[in-house]
Structures are given as structure tokens and as C-alpha cells.
Design goal:
alpha/beta; Rossmann fold; SIR2/SIRT2 'Small Domain'; 10 helices; 18% strand; disordered C terminus
Length: 260
């Protein structure tokens, strides 16, 4: 549950901060109805586990199967809408002079909510990339039948522009995320268990530098701790708008009445 005293204290720190870094995970997107990798798959995909499909080996073995699964996922995220947590972070970015949003999510909802300074650690389902060369393009909508389309430059199969199990995170994005974590005035971790490395190390890298860390999650189970860490337990879609409202005023969802 949210403590009024903790909320007021954190809101004051946010209002005074010039540099804010935020890490978001699957819990934020789950509030928009997007299933996490921990959720059991349904329908045609019920017999598979995500770990069996989200790998380079699976793509080499059966590119059509992997492409069709990602085309299905692309359809899910395209139909989803940003929720109050996404909109609150977009509003926070407008209020803070130096704001960095680090996300493990690949659904593009932060961008659709209006966020601009985004580091996508795990890539984005909004894009496809070539499995051989450096070509990137928007993910082709309605391409779930058959196998992956060919790259327009070299003819190799396209793949989703996401980081699969066994692949390294983009080095430049990870370095920028670490710099933001260690150089900010306050760090927010939202909707993530902070168990999946290397993103999980970011809040604690900030805490070791003496940066106040605020963990917003449904549970504190599996989380780290320390004197610089505060927990606000609850859905990000409730906690983050409350923080923005407490820090800068306004009523309820800070973007409820705006076009985004």
C-alpha cells in the first residue's frame, strides 16, 4: 500500500530533481492487457512457452513459426492502449529538465503515450530488422501468414527487432542506461521484479551511488533493499499518477483529457 508520508516525500524529491531516470518492466504493460512472458499462452500458442520461440535457434529452426508468433504479438500490442502509468511518465518527462526512460518492454506504448527520451533495452515490436544486414523498417502489419518477408536490401529473412534469449542487449543503450542511473537525482523502478539481468542491476547501481531509489511494484518480493530504497506497493497505473499529482498538482490521470 502507498504511505501518504512516503508519497509526499518522494513527490518533493521529484519536484526538486533536475535529473530523473525511470526503469519500466512488464508490469506496466500488463495494465494495458498485454500478457507477460510469465503468463501462460492461450489459443493456438498454448502448447508453446515463450522461451521456446524467442531465441535465435528457434528462428533458424523454424522461421515461419517464430515470425507468426511475433506477428500475433504485434497484433496484440497494436490493439492495446497506453494506460495511466504510461501517461504519467510522459507528463513527468515534460516536467523534469533531464529525464531518461529506460524500458524492458517492446510494445511501443511509452512512445504512443508521448514519451520521447526512451532507451529500449530489449528492442521494439514496432520494427522488423534484417537477420543478416543492418536494415530496419516498421513491422509489416498483417504479415502473420507464411514465413518472414525478405529484407528489401539483401533478401535475407526479416525478424522482429527485439532482443532474444541468448542475445546481448544493445551496448550503447545499456551504457546510456547505466550513465543515467548513476547520474540521476532520483531513480524510479516501475512494474518490474528487478530479477532479469542486466537491467535488474540498474536500480542498485543508482542506490550504491547514494541516489534515492523508488520501487513501484505489486509486491516487494525478490527486490533488493538498502537505506536509499523506498517501496510504493500497488499498480503503477495508480501510483505514478498519484506521484505526478502530488509533485506538480492536477487532478487524477495527468493526461486523461489530452490527445496523445
Amino acid at each position: 500500500m502507498m504511505s501518504t508520508q512516503s508519497l509526499t516525500d518522494i513527490a518533493g524529491r521529484l519536484r526538486a530533481a533536475r535529473r530523473v531516470a525511470v526503469l519500466t518492466g512488464a508490469g506496466v504493460s500488463a495494465e494495458s492487457g498485454i500478457p507477460t512472458f510469465r503468463d501462460a499462452m492461450t489459443g493456438l500458442w498454448a502448447k508453446y512457452r515463450p522461451e521456446e520461440l524467442a531465441t535465435p535457434e528457434a528462428f533458424r529452426r523454424n522461421p515461419a513459426l517464430v515470425w507468426q508468433w511475433y506477428a500475433w504479438r504485434h497484433g496484440l500490442v497494436s490493439a492495446a492502449e497506453p494506460n495511466a502509468a504510461h501517461r504519467a511518465l510522459a507528463e513527468m518527462e515534460r516536467r523534469v529538465p533531464d529525464f531518461t526512460l529506460i524500458t524492458q518492454n517492446v510494445d511501443g506504448l511509452h512512445r504512443r503515450a508521448g514519451s520521447q527520451s526512451i532507451l529500449e533495452l530489449h528492442g521494439s515490436l514496432e520494427r522488423a530488422c534484417c537477420s543478416r544486414c543492418d536494415v530496419r523498417q516498421p513491422f509489416p502489419a498483417g504479415s502473420g501468414e507464411g514465413g518472414p518477408p525478405p529484407c528489401p536490401a539483401c533478401g535475407a529473412p526479416l525478424r522482429p527487432d527485439v532482443v532474444w534469449f541468448g542475445e546481448s542487449l544493445p551496448a550503447a543503450a545499456l551504457e546510456a542506461a547505466l550513465d543515467a542511473a548513476q547520474g540521476c537525482d532520483i531513480f524510479l523502478s516501475d512494474g518490474t521484479s528487478n530479477l532479469v539481468q542486466p537491467a535488474a542491476s540498474l536500480p542498485w547501481a543508482a542506490a550504491r551511488r547514494g541516489v534515492p531509489v523508488v520501487v513501484v511494484n505489486l509486491t516487494a518480493e525478490g527486490q533488493g533493499g538498502g537505506p536509499n530504497v523506498t517501496y510504493l506497493t500497488g499498480p503503477a497505473g495508480q501510483v505514478l499518477p498519484a506521484l505526478v499529482q502530488a509533485a506538480w498538482g492536477g487532478d487524477g490521470d495527468p493526461l486523461a483529457s489530452r490527445e496523445v
